[in-house]
Amino acid sequence: xxxxxxxxxAELNEMTASMYGNMVKAVVDIERGILVVDSELHVDQExxxxxxxSNQNDLWxxxxxxxxxxxxxxxxxxxxxxxxxxxxNMSRGVENEEIKQRIIRxxxxxxSK
Length: 113
Hints:
Elements: E1 2-4, E2 7-8, H1 9-18, E3 24-29, E4 34-37, H2 42-51, E5 59-64, E6 75-76, H3 97-110, E7 111-112
Parallel strand pairs: 2-7
Antiparallel strand pairs: 1-4, 3-4, 3-5, 5-6
């Protein structure tokens, strides 16, 4: 598990081989601009960020599919940590379109070809 300043698609592809074959789990802190990747569970990444001072309301779990970079399928919004009735997010996805767009912008700033 690591916090990412910048990461390449090649690095993400390497991570897929050791974990899920085609996917890398990640958690973003949309307020602090942090991306954490490469862990078996989103909750482990979430816990790391909470220990580093992140606010629970700002953390969102996603999956990255490096081979789909450049398409809408590159980022999958699906994680158990996203279920938050208090924030009106009742599913594993990200229901708020503004939050989704913030996540996309953050990820695209951190991942390079």
